[in-house]
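Hi R.,

Here's the chain you asked about this morning:
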Amino acid sequence: MKIQLSDHFSYDRLLRFTLPSIAMMIFTSIYGVVDGFFVSNLAGKTPFAAVNLIMPVLMILSTVGFMFGTGGTAIVSMTFGAGHKEQANRYFSLFTYIALALGVVFDILGILLIRPIASLLGAKGELLENCCVYARIILMALPFNVLQLLFQSFFVAAEKPQLGLAVTVSSGVTNMVLDAVLVTLLPQPYKLAGAAVATAMSQVVGGAIPLFYFARKNSSILRLGRTTYDGSAVLKACLNGSSEFMSNISMSMVSMLYNLQLLHYAGEDGVAAYGVMMYVSMIFAAAFIGYSIGTAPVVGYHYGAGDHGELKSLLRKSLVLVGVFSVCMTAAAELSAVWLAKIFVGYDQGLMELTVSGFRIFALSFLFMGTAIFGSGFFTALNDGLTSALISFLRTLVFQAAAVLLLPLLWGIHGVWASIVVAEAMAVLLTISFLILKKGRYHY
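And here is the predicted structure, written out as C-alpha cells:
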C-alpha cells in the first residue's frame, strides 16, 4: 500500500516511509568508502591521504545541490499541503534549473583554482600532484553531483523514495564496478585517476537519470516544466536550506582544520587515520541525514495543512527512534574498531594502531550527532531556516573548530579525536533548547 504525505504515521509507517531515504544516504556513503578502500590498499598511503585532504573542497562545491534540495523540498511540500499543486511544480522546476546552473559555474572555478587551494591546505610534492589529479577529474562531473544531491530530497517529496533509492544504488554500483576494474587493472601511476573516473561516472548516473525522469511525463507528483524566476522563493529556499548548506561547508572547513592539526601532530599518518574515521562517520551520519530527508516532506506537509497533532506525534516518535539508533550505532562502532581499521590500513601496523586508538574516542560522538542532525532538519521542514542554520553553524563549525584548536593543547593527538565528541554533545544541548523554546510557535 502506497504511503502518502497526508497519512497518519505510526512507528511502523514512519520507518517504512523513511527507510528508502536512509538506505539511499547510507549507500551513497558506502560507495565513497569503497572508493577509499581501493585507493588505500592499491594506490597507496599518499594517494589515500590526498583524497582525504582534497575531498572537503569537492564537498563544498557540490553542496549547493543539497541546499536547494532540502530547502526547496520544504517549500514544495508545504505548497502541496496547502493545495497548490501547479505552483509546487513551478517551484520544483525553478530550484532544479538554478542548482544546475550554479553547478556549472562552480565546476569551472574549481578546475581553475584547485592547485592553489590544495597548496593552501598544506599539500606539497607528490601529495599536491595527487590532489590535483583526483580533484580535476571529479570536478568534470560536478553539475551531475549537484543534481544527484538535489534529487535525493525531491524524490521523497515526489512520494517516490524507492525510486530515489534505486537511482542511488545504480550510481553506487557504477562506482564500485569501475573502481574494481580501473584501480585494479591500471598501472600504479594511474590508479588514483582510475578511482576518480569511477566516482565521476557514478555521479553522472546519479544526476542524469532523475533529470530525465522528472523532465518527462511520470507517475510522481512532480515534473520539470516551464517556470518563471521568483526571487523571493529562491531566497526562501536558500534560507531554508542554509542549515544543510552551512553544515556541509562547515564540516568541510573543519575537516581541513583537522587535517592541518593532524599534519602537525602525526604527519600523513594522522590524515590517513582521520580519513578512515570520516568514512565510517559518513555512513553513520548518513543514516540520520537519510531519516531527516525522509521525514522532512511529511513534516512540511502537515505543517502546511495545519495538522499540529500529527506534527507533535512525528517529533515525539522521531526523537525516540533517533535515540535508539544512536545507542546501537555507538556500540557497533566500538565493537568493530579493529576490524574497520584493518580493512583500510591493515598493511601498516603503526597506522592501524593509531587509527584504532583514535576511533575508540571518536566513535563516542555517534551517541549525540543524530539528535542535532534531526533537529536541524526538523526546523528546515518547518521553513524556519534561521533556527536550522544556527544549529548547523554552531554544531559543525563553531563548536568543532573551537574544540579542535583547544583540546590538542591539553591532550595532544587524543585531543583531536575527542574534539568531535565534545562538539556533538554541546550541539545536543543547543538543539533541545531550541525545541523547547519554539514549541509554542509551531504547536508541536
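One quick note: The chain has a mean pLDDT of 87.

Cheers,
M.
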